[in-house]
Structure formats: structure tokens, C-alpha cells
Amino acid sequence: MPNIADFLTLPDRRLAYQRLRGRTNGPGLVFLGGYASDMTGTKASYLAERCAEAGIAYLRFDYRGTGQSPGNFREGTIGGWFEDACAAFDQLTEGPQVVIGSSMGGWLGLMLAHVRPNRLKAFIGIAAAPDFTEELIWAKLSPAQRTELEKNGEMHDPTAPPEVQVPITFKLIKEARQHLLLHQPIDITCPVHLLQGIRDEEVPANYAIRIAERILHNNVRITYIKDGDHRLSKPQDLALLWNIIEQQLS
Predict the structure, then answer these.
(1) pTM (two decimals)
(2) Which of 37, 131, 157, 230 is catalytic?
(3) Catalytic residue among 84, 103, 131, 193
(4) Residue 230 annotated in active site
(5) Rounded distance between C-alpha atoms, residue 6 and residue 171, angstroms
(6) Is 6 annotated as catalytic?
(7) Catalytic residue flag (residue 103)
(8) Strand 220-225 with 192-197, pairing
(9) The predicted structure's pLDDT at residue 222
(10) Of 38, 62, 84, 200, which one is the catalytic site residue?
């Protein structure tokens, strides 16, 4: 599938997307990428190839200020990117969907499952990271670092690999507090499958259990990959992901 984007034009922004129009007698797939990731990433592209082979409808897109979508990434917030996810989901998909959320996309996917319960056939989280701004960044900063972040307005993401210089803004941290999930029940109705690497250095392995404990229903499964890192993009990881997706498509 060529990396040529179409654009969803909204009143205040444009979102780049790629869509496969698959069969109409089954659910489609929607991929929600992680923080500072775009729709040309390994997992998103792998799913595009598999969906094209299988004739399954598939949507991937770039949040505002990310990838091919115009905007200032540093102005991005969880609430703004969730608005993007809702707009793309509502305007570019039809019928039941299996939503796959990677890292931050897992946070947005859980939020989407809450507000669109009749449209989600299932949710699959890949190293899902709800509340990462508070739990995995802010909580780990020293008082001096917090003061510096508030003063300067941004810092490099301390959880990102050294070769990846991704900004974390105080605006992101502050706004995200309106959307935290892990200290309250997660009231969603669709089946959930969480895929988590034990060697993930960005999202702790027990994060999947914390998410599962908060979901009100019991149709939740967790699959751990012993040698899995945060990306979960090795061929065997992707094959396992597709196997999980196929289970939810049937």
C-alpha cells in the first residue's frame, strides 16, 4: 500500500489518512498510533498489508501535528488527539470496528471504546499506555525537574530512547489530567486483548494488569511476550498480533 495520504478536512484542521475499503460483511480495523508516531510505522504498515491481502477494511491516520497532518506537534494534547481519533472514526469508518491502539493509542482506544460502545467489536492494546503523562513521566520527575518543565514549557521525553528526541510539554501533562483512567473504573463493553512485552522499558509489564483490573467486565485477556520490548515490531510479534486480530474478526 503506497504511503500517499488522503485528507479529512475538518473546520479547524486537516488529518492525513489512508483507508482500505474492504468487504462489507465483517468488521474493519482502525489503528491508533503512539505518541509522536505516524501512520507509516512498522505496525501500521504491516496491518495495511495484511488487510489488503485479506480484503478487510482498514483505517490509519496521523493526529494533528504528526506525520503528514498539518499543525504544531508541541501544541498537541490528549484531548485534541482524541478529538482527531473520534473524527476519523466517525467519518471514515462504517459499522463495527476492531480498534488497535499502540502505546498512547491504547489510551485513546480505551476512551473511544467508552464513547462509541456500539461501534467497537473489540479493542486490542499494544503496550497500551493510559495515563502515561502522569504515571510514567510526571510521577518520575524530581521536584527540580517539575519546576524546570513548568518554567520552560517543555523537555525531552525521558522515557524515549536516546536517539529519539521527542518533546514533552507541560501543556500536554496538564491537559491530560482531564482524561486519566487508571484510578477509576473503565466502563467499556467490548472484548479487550492486551499485548505486552515483559522487557518493555517504557511501559512496565504490570501496566496491562492494572488496565485489566480497572475494566468493569471480565472479557479481558493479556498476552505477555517474554522478550518483547515497547515497539513489539519484530516479525514474530507482528504475527502474534495478527493472530489476535483474526480471533476478534471471526
Answers:
(1) 0.96
(2) 230
(3) 103
(4) yes
(5) 29
(6) no
(7) yes
(8) parallel
(9) 98
(10) 200
